[in-house]
């Protein structure tokens, strides 16, 4: 459980750093348009902090964590951070108004998409693990 609360705290800090970076970077360059930098803050808060607080609550109630948990956890962290890094890369390019070739634009989108796929797969693995723990808890209650 300690791992989940520490991870939630880390992602809360990263969310705040992402929000400050978005505000200050766009202000410094006088940028007033839309940029994917704005998604860094919300992704880290919701998919980082809130998600791991929910994991803490689920763990407290169902004790679902086991040695296999490392698989979905690592995949989740890689997916979330890969996605956010691509938001930052695209956002900086947008603020600096850097022209991106079609290949570079597609590469950024593709890598962010891979991050989203990792997130989705890891969530399914997690849900299967929690489901097993819920079924086990239900059987032991009877």
UniProtKB/TrEMBL annotation:
<keyword id="KW-0812">Transmembrane</keyword>
<feature type="transmembrane region" description="Helical">
    <location>
        <begin position="7"/>
        <end position="23"/>
    </location>
</feature>
<feature type="transmembrane region" description="Helical">
    <location>
        <begin position="43"/>
        <end position="62"/>
    </location>
</feature>
<feature type="transmembrane region" description="Helical">
    <location>
        <begin position="108"/>
        <end position="128"/>
    </location>
</feature>
<dbReference type="Pfam" id="PF11070">
    <property type="entry name" value="DUF2871"/>
</dbReference>
<protein>
    <submittedName>
        <fullName>DUF2871 domain-containing protein</fullName>
    </submittedName>
</protein>
<keyword id="KW-1133">Transmembrane helix</keyword>
<dbReference type="InterPro" id="IPR021299">
    <property type="entry name" value="DUF2871"/>
</dbReference>
<feature type="transmembrane region" description="Helical">
    <location>
        <begin position="74"/>
        <end position="96"/>
    </location>
</feature>
<keyword id="KW-0472">Membrane</keyword>
């Amino acid at each position: 459980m300690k791992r989940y609360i520490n991870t939630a705290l880390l992602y809360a800090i990263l969310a705040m750093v992402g929000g400050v970076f978005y505000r200050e970077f766009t202000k410094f360059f006088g940028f007033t348009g839309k940029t994917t930098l704005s998604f860094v803050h919300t992704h880290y808060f919701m998919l980082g902090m809130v998600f791991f607080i929910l994991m803490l609550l689920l763990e407290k109630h169902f004790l679902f964590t086991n040695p296999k948990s490392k698989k979905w956890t690592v995949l989740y962290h890689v997916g979330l951070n890969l996605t956010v890094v691509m938001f930052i890369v695209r956002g900086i390019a947008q603020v600096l108004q850097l022209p991106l070739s079609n290949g570079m634009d597609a590469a950024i989108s593709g890598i962010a998409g891979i991050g989203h796929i990792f997130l989705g797969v890891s969530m399914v693995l997690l849900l299967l693990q929690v489901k097993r723990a819920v079924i086990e808890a239900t059987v032991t209650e009877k």
